[in-house]
Design goal:
- The complex is a heterodimer of chains A (486) and B (228).
- The two termini of chain A are 41 Å apart.
- In chain A, strands 1-10-7-4-2-3 form a six-stranded parallel beta sheet, sandwiched between helices. Chain A has a four-stranded mixed beta sheet with strand order 8-5-6-9, with helices on both faces.
- In chain A, strand 5 and strand 6 form a beta hairpin.
- In chain A, helix 10 packs across helix 11 and helix 16 packs parallel to helix 19.
- Chain A is an alpha/beta fold and 486 residues long.
- Chain B folds into two domains: 34 residues, no CATH class; 180 residues, Rossmann fold (3-Layer(aba) Sandwich), CATH 3.40.50.
- In chain B, 32% of the residues lie in helices and 22% in strands.
- In chain B, the strands form three sheets. Chain B has a six-stranded parallel beta sheet, with helices on both faces.
- The radius of gyration of chain B is 22 Å and the shape is elongated.
- Classes of the chains: A alpha/beta (486), B alpha/beta (228).
- At the A-B interface, helix 4, helix 5, strand 1, helix 6 and helix 9 of A face helix 1, helix 2, helix 6, helix 7 and strand 9 of B.
- Strand 9 of chain A pairs antiparallel with strand 9 of chain B, so a sheet runs across the interface.
Chain lengths: 486, 228
């Protein structure tokens, strides 16, 4: 997928001005995030499970080579085959070769963010192989030739009416000529169209939520059942997964499953959790004859052992974006590449470079909600801060910002000068803003005042001045601190 | 450019080891990892996955219904009649594809003169299926289906209506109890080809985050919990 992350500011402008997107995003506040809160409350052990989930992933990462080899050994023993892809290009080549090897014309594809990451669909299409997305959201955006805007709800940016228009445009030639208005009718029509595609597909391609080293199983979590049809009906099943998906045992999977669905959609359990281990066995009446797992590195191994390793714990639940005020305002497409939201702001500079995606980690208020809901406790604000530092070090920050920061740093290191300058500025602003109490425009602060007024300072001087006079007595200060959750 | 499968494999594994600043896992860390695979440690105990048997069955039924399945608690003798009655109640024709499982063979299907059952995998034209279940999980009202000659996977997925016969004794507390049973039945080194862990009918929230049932798998799931 071609990145537009370098034009983040332009993307944001377009997103804020898109009324359909803003309607869709408004539903996030009452949808996923509220349901997550209720699900977490229903399970008293939820916080302990999050701690354990973090520890499991840390353990798996510290022993990643061992568990990957164990996983491979088990897959091979049961008749499957593991392929190792150091780069996105390698993974595309391996999958294309597997498909051509069975003369595949169509592929039933179950939603995979790793497939988006390596640009698999475009590659297969260029070779004359048609990938058909079967997850409903993913199918909708494939028809619209759009990238996903959310890692678990790829069409969350669209309204029902937009989906209805898309279906009418693409399904009318299949005989579905009525424009639908109800959600359940839209779901039923997609089911009907896609059912035949499942039956006709030569290859089923899925991702994996987890790879279990103990048993050599790929584990998939879905709600629709499309992944299961994809890995049951065609004669070949290809699993595409990145290396950090491997976990040691089924017991570890149980812990991760308990936090995954609750964090993602607020469900107690997703409708389908499926373990696939090797190809069809003797005597089986269905199932694929060939089973392949493609393990993708694409730069992940180089993150191990660094201060950024924590990002590899991610289990792709989407909770960080569901709770992010920035994602909630601009949606997923503005981030410009595959992974949006806080985790996208951390992963994208790693995967495609800080030169391309350096703006993404700046799109954070550091409110910390992402970290507070992450089921594997990834310190997302710290990781974003890391990228900001890398961006600054490499002189990628705009000159005006660098000069502003340099000026502030100069003053901040000289307390008397700082107090003198802020005192003058404070008095001047208080005087000028005396009549309205706020500013509609202000020199050097256009970025702020374009969208909201800047409050004029209240009488009493700067915070420093007030502190010195003892106006902030101890009790009041403590109360102020106490209202913050620690 | 890649140098071939073996080089690609070595490149990834060596990259991991270089980043972790060690060679192949050895010594005590390796023993610890091997021990973890041999005797998997359990995560934090979840109270509702550890109830006594009677409460476990109640909890299973409650969560299954909250997840949009329907539940009927029946005796073994009542199973064939309940299957017929369920199809009739939902205005479905009295025919189904049934798993060729010995567990289902013992019921007196001949008592239902109008009911037509075909044993085998599901075809695209099948409207309903009848299967057993390897286990039920009380914690979330979830069913576990282990694939094999006696339980084709298509029966769990293709028909619009899935009727499941589950014995009370097969309802366990949590996921960990299922893993233990799988290891006992199939051996530690040989999982069934597919284990479908299914909670209620198929669903999607992909249009406006609103749940709709029957996305790609069954639209309805009816569970017959059989008293022992």
């Amino acid at each position: 997928m071609q990145s537009t992350a370098h034009d983040f500011k332009g993307n944001v402008g377009a997103a804020l001005a898109d009324p359909n997107l803003q309607d869709s995003l408004a539903k996030l506040k009452t949808g996923f995030s509220e349901r997550r809160r209720q699900a977490a409350e229903r399970l008293p052990e939820f916080e302990a499970l999050r701690d354990r989930a973090r520890d499991i992933k840390n353990h798996a990462l510290a022993n990643l080579d061992f568990y990957l080899e164990e996983f491979e050994r088990k897959v091979t023993a049961l008749g499957g085959q593991v392929h190792w892809a150091p780069t996105a290009e390698d993974a595309r080549r391996i999958i294309a070769d597997l498909c051509r090897g069975v003369g595949a014309r169509t592929i039933a594809k179950s939603k995979s963010m790793v497939a988006e990451e390596i640009g698999l669909n475009e590659h297969l299409e260029a070779l004359g192989i048609a990938p058909i997305e079967t997850d409903l959201g993913e199918y909708i955006i494939q028809l619209r030739r759009e990238p996903p805007s959310h890692i678990i709800a790829p069409a969350v940016h669209l309204t029902k009416d937009q989906v209805a228009d898309t279906f009418l445009e693409h399904h009318s030639r299949l005989g579905f000529t009525r424009r639908l208005t109800e959600r359940n009718d839209l779901v039923a029509e997609a089911r009907q169209v896609l059912r035949q595609k499942f039956l006709d597909a030569d290859v089923g391609l899925t991702g994996a939520n987890f790879l279990v080293a103990e048993t050599g199983s790929s584990m998939l979590v879905t709600n629709e059942g499309n992944a299961d049809l994809s890995n049951t009906l065609p004669r070949m099943h290809i699993v595409l997964a990145s290396i950090e998906k491997v976990i040691p045992t089924l017991e570890d999977a149980a812990v991760l499953l308990r936090v995954l669905a609750r964090s993602a959609t607020g469900q107690e359990s997703s409708a389908y959790t499926t373990l696939n281990t090797g190809p069809r066995r003797p005597g089986d009446l269905d199932g694929p004859e060939r089973y392949h797992v493609v393990l993708l590195d694409n730069g992940r191994s180089s993150v191990l052992g660094t201060e950024m390793q924590d990002m590899l714990r991610c289990i792709r639940c989407g909770a960080c974006m569901n709770h992010c005020p920035v994602y909630g305002a601009i949606g997923g497409h503005a981030y410009g590449w595959v992974y949006p939201g806080p985790i996208g702001a951390v992963l994208t500079p790693q995967l495609i470079g800080v030169e391309e995606a350096g703006d993404l980690p700046n799109a954070s208020t550091f409110c910390g909600r992402c970290e507070s809901v992450c089921p594997v406790r990834i310190p997302l604000p710290r990781l974003m801060r890391h990228w900001r530092e890398r961006e600054f070090e490499r002189h990628l920050t705009p000159r005006a910002v660098r000069q502003g920061l340099a000026l502030w740093a100069y003053l901040a290191r000289r307390p008397r000068l700082y107090r003198a300058v802020t005192g003058i500025a404070n008095r001047a602003l208080a005087l000028l803003g005396r009549s309205d109490g706020r500013f509609g425009t202000l020199p050097l602060a256009g970025g702020w005042t374009r969208y909201r007024d800047f409050p004029a300072p209240q009488p009493g001087g700067t915070f420093h001045a007030q502190w010195k006079r003892g106006r902030w007595n101890r009790g009041r200060w403590n109360r102020g601190q106490g209202s913050r959750k620690r | 450019m890649s140098g071939g499968p073996d080089e690609d494999r070595a490149r990834i594994l060596n990259g991991i080891r270089r980043s972790l600043q060690r060679g192949a896992l050895a010594g005590d860390p390796r023993k610890a990892a091997e021990a973890r695979l041999a005797e998997p440690p359990r995560g934090p105990a979840v109270a509702r996955a550890n109830l006594p048997p009677a409460e476990r069955v109640e909890l299973f039924c409650r969560w299954a219904e909250l997840n949009n399945a329907t539940v009927a608690r029946v005796s073994a003798a009542e199973v064939p009649r309940e299957v017929s009655a369920y199809l009739a109640r939902n205005n479905l024709s009295a025919q189904a594809a049934m798993a060729p499982s010995p567990l289902l063979a013992d019921f007196d299907w001949a008592s239902q003169k109008m009911l037509s059952l075909r044993r085998g995998r599901a075809e695209a034209s099948d409207q309903a299926s009848v299967t057993g279940a390897f286990a039920g999980i009380a914690e979330t009202g979830t069913l576990v289906m282990a694939s094999g000659p006696d339980h084709p996977v298509t029966l769990n997925l293709l028909p619009d209506t899935h009727i499941v016969v589950l014995r009370e004794n097969d309802i366990v507390g949590g996921y960990e109890d299922v893993w233990r049973r799988l290891r006992e039945r199939y051996g530690k080194d040989c999982m069934p080809r597919t284990v479908n862990i299914i909670t209620g009918p198929s669903r999607t929230g992909d249009i406006e985050q609103t749940i709709e049932l029957g996305a790609h798998g069954p639209r309805r799931m009816h569970i017959l919990v059989v008293r022992e």
